[in-house]
């Protein structure tokens, strides 16, 4: 039945193509943010919709719609199950979603269930403590943590197995502590964790640097290390990386998009092309800076390979941490 | 006074014609969003935010409009609570308890007018608090760690014991049902799924709106249909429209106390209007309800939650403006709005963006007065809703409520869930289980459990963390007082009565 249906659709598509001879162009382009308004997925979508509008690369304005639930799980299942042929919708995705796919928290679907389109920006992990903390470098902190693993609480904005927890787990591992043994406090979002840090309820906040940038100049916190490969540009240029302090801890929070599983190559290539054009415009660069994201551009095949590599890597990490069998 | 000078500049911003118009627009739209069952402030703000941005409004104008919708919705939420027994938004659940009985008595007009006044006073007290104490309060909120939040929730549940007056067992069952619903979804500490049956739609648990629409709108409509078809259902008569001064003065202490409580609860991040109104309602019941008239249409029982939920909206802006931490779900969206304008919310906001912050605060003074002025003539219009025939009213309410649920989740699954919960709520109500404890159990369960687990994670499993620090001790003493003061006072009055004999 399914095969027959697919065949008929295929034939119809060929007929439509040959008769129209028009290249695919979405009539009502949508960016689906799989969360409530105002969060990271919303910003990911706005990065594209706003710059697309400003750079005038599409005839029709692209709108943002929302479908919250399970760091993208609801939208993932919805797109695969009910919109498998929809070429008009791109869906926002992030490191957190890939982690959940790796842990089997996206239902019965794995990373091969959709068509990965592009990654367009990134944020990096950072180790943040209170301004009056006695630690001034990452090594001092790790040494203290080693000496007294139960003495300090790490807190961040996600549950065990989330990307926030993994940052804490990597730091604990660097201090020779089993992640299962560390004192980890799960808050609802980074804002709550920052407030708890300020109130002295937790001592270490493994957060994200761009998300933190609003508090950066307040003088209430200290950044001991950024978890990027190299030093970051702009106002963060004086912040040392964990690597240069001797700890090989790197954590990238990339933000990207996927398309429904059954879109045609022509439709997929349309999006690849338009995004290739978009990332070269000054409007996009401006918009990315406005969102506090760092350059990270992988489009089409390159992104597909990258994601599958990430998920595989996360699966190993989750197994090591005892989160999956 | 530096504050007054800054506030003066703020008024300068507000009295620009465009901003004045936006305050007005925000108030009207907010009242509307609040009044429609199912749609709340969060829907209003989320819908208007992209429009503001696309129109290219300056950031202070956008924020003036959006926050106008926020406190306007708290203002308007009372309307359907009173008229239909269906809360317009989360903060208006407790308004149904005395508001609806008043409408049944034919006093819908005075109830709407009085709750309007209570909302106005609550809102204004909160803005005054915001103006003068914001930085001070921000430091107080920081001291609330996980253990303090947990004890605060214990205190909240203790005050709810007051609600259990007529039938404690049924109320406790109600709280337990609320917990059972609240526990569904991902466990916030370990990330394990609980009772989600592998259904992705349940990973995040039940959406608050789904639960409220189910338990209140759907079940209410089922009850209405039953009444309507089984017997001749008398439309409540409208005896008079306006509230008397005497009635307002009768409630004055209730309004003042509830405003302060609402504001303080609002300042604490992670709490919200539902908790503020619950605590103030139950506290007032303990304090002033000597005749046991709360729940049967007591004016004070109506004034308490209404002044508290409006004060809460003002309080929730304190951590948002001073710390960059949202005090409620709606302020979280407002924070998102700031970030959209490339303004980083955080402790530097007061220093970096004085025009924005003080313009916003000044706009709230103006907005509150506008709301009061807009709402008074509308009382007459709203009371007319009671005369809409049921064949028209019932489907309209359910359609609006379902639109609200769908707009948050964009899924038909949650509509099904709302219907299911509605049927459950219908049977519970037929069996005389009160709905308020169910909702409260559902709302408080998550905050309570999360903070319990966080506190244990911090202390390494030691329970003494809940008894350290002056805030915890104070809260425990208050909790004990709530339990024992009525007992002791009953005992003493009995003894006194015996002695007299």
User: What is the class of the largest domain in chain A in the CATH system?
Assistant: Alpha Beta
CATH superfamily of the largest domain in chain A, please?
Bordetella uptake gene, domain 1
The stretches of 5 or more residues of chain A where confidence is low (pLDDT under 50) are 17-21
Note the run of SSEs of chain B as H and E: HHHHHHHHEEHHHHHHHHHHHH
Number of helices of chain A: 11
In total, the number of strands of chain B is: 2
Shape by Cα distribution of chain A: globular
The domain count of chain B comes to 1
Mean pLDDT level of chain B: 81
Please summarize the sheet with the most strands of chain B: 2 strands, antiparallel
Reported for the largest beta sheet of chain A, the result is: 8 strands, mixed
The oligomeric status of these chains comes to: heterodimer
Helix content range of the residues of chain B, please?
A: over 70%
Helix content of chain A: 40-55%
Strand order across the largest sheet of chain B: 1-2
Descriptive account of the structure:
The longest helix of chain A is centred in the last third of the chain and has 20 residues. Chain A contains 11 helices and 10 strands. With 325 residues, chain A is of the alpha/beta class. In chain B, 56% of the residues are buried. At the A-B interface, helix 2, strand 2, helix 3, strand 6 and helix 7 of A face helix 3, helix 14 and helix 19 of B.
Summarize the entry for a quick read.
The complex is a heterodimer of chains A (325) and B (501). Chain A is of the alpha/beta class and 325 residues long.
Show the helix and strand layout.
The complex is a heterodimer of chains A (325) and B (501).
Chain A: H1 2-20, E1 30-33, H2 40-55, E2 63-66, H3 73-82, E3 89-94, H4 95-102, E4 115-130, H5 138-147, E5 154-156, H6 163-174, E6 184-186, H7 190-198, E7 205-208, H8 209-216, E8 221-226, E9 252-259, H9 265-279, H10 282-290, E10 298-299, H11 301-320
Parallel strand pairs in A: 1-2, 1-3, 5-6
Antiparallel strand pairs in A: 3-9, 4-7, 4-8, 4-9, 4-10
Chain B: H1 2-14, H2 17-35, H3 41-55, H4 59-84, H5 95-104, H6 108-142, H7 146-160, H8 168-182, E1 185-186, E2 193-194, H9 208-230, H10 245-250, H11 252-267, H12 273-288, H13 299-323, H14 329-340, H15 349-352, H16 354-383, H17 390-409, H18 412-430, H19 435-459, H20 470-500
Antiparallel strand pairs in B: 1-2
Helix pairs in contact in B: 1-16, 2-4, 2-16, 3-4, 3-14, 4-5, 4-6, 4-13, 4-14, 4-16, 5-6, 5-13, 6-11, 6-13, 6-16, 7-19, 7-20, 8-19, 9-17, 9-18, 9-19, 11-12, 11-13, 12-13, 17-18
